[in-house]
Design goal:
218 residues; alpha/beta; TIM Barrel; eight-stranded parallel barrel; 8 strands; 53% helix; 17% strand; globular; binds erythose-4-phosphate
């Protein structure tokens, strides 16, 4: 499974890059607004830190023409930029055109199998299926992920299923069980994935016993 980091925070992205685990980055207008730096500068800075797909989202969701203009702007910023396109009839026209031009796309705010099917038929590189927002309202976000993974395999689409709106390590467990290709993980959740009290106490005990033993590496 590929790990993307779901962040526009350069410090977080640097730390994850140092961990050696990051395969790509997803941003969205909310994450970028939180950082308050320029869109282009931030995306280009991210591309200089991570050598992998970096999603930059278009915002004119109701007009294919406007989205296409925005798509060409963001994709000119760096060869690794993937154009993130909100799902919908206008968005899917954009995805078809960009796919024909050889530009990679990440279709976002997907919640159902039928939406993912349409996005895959339009040629999406990544299908961003949101799970946390569904679980937040007592749904089962991972159901659509499982269905979409099966659909992609069954019909041999080239699209990869990307689990988004991740809230906890448990979402990653379920994403692995569903066979998802990618999870885009908030920094805090990635940190939590390292943690286990028995790992901490186990390491402490080994360290103490080693010190007491008087042994060394000679
Ligand atoms: C996906 O690419 C989105 O940026 C993100 O996962 C949305 O997550 P949220 O529901 O925490 O806003």
């Amino acid at each position: 499974m590929k790990f993307f980091i779901d962040s526009a925070n350069l410090d977080e992205i640097r730390k994850v890059a140092e961990m050696g685990l990051v395969d790509g980055v997803t941003t969205n207008p909310t994450l970028l607004a939180k950082e308050g730096k320029g869109f282009k500068t931030t995306i280009q800075e991210i591309c200089s830190i991570v050598d992998g797909p970096v999603s930059a989202e278009v915002v004119s969701a109701t007009s294919a023409e406007e989205m296409l203009k925005e798509a060409h702007i963001v994709s000119s910023w760096h060869p690794n930029v993937v154009v993130k396109v909100p799902f919908g009839p206008e968005g899917m026209k954009v995805v078809k055109k960009l796919t024909a031009e050889g530009i990679k796309t990440n279709v976002t705010v997907l919640f159902t199998l039928t939406q993912a099917l349409i996005a895959a038929k339009a040629g999406a590189t990544f299908l961003s299926n949101f799970v946390g927002r569904v679980d937040d309202i007592s749904g089962e976000g991972m159901v659509a992920v499982r269905d979409s993974v099966n659909m992609v395999h069954e019909y041999e689409f080239k699209s990869e299923v990307l689990v988004a709106s991740v809230r906890s390590p448990q979402h990653i467990v379920e994403a692995v069980r569903a066979g998802a290709h990618i999870a885009t993980i908030p920094f805090k959740v990635l940190e939590q994935m390292y943690q286990h009290p028995l790992t901490t106490s186990g390491i402490e005990r080994f360290t103490e016993d080693w010190k007491k033993s008087g042994l060394n590496f000679d």
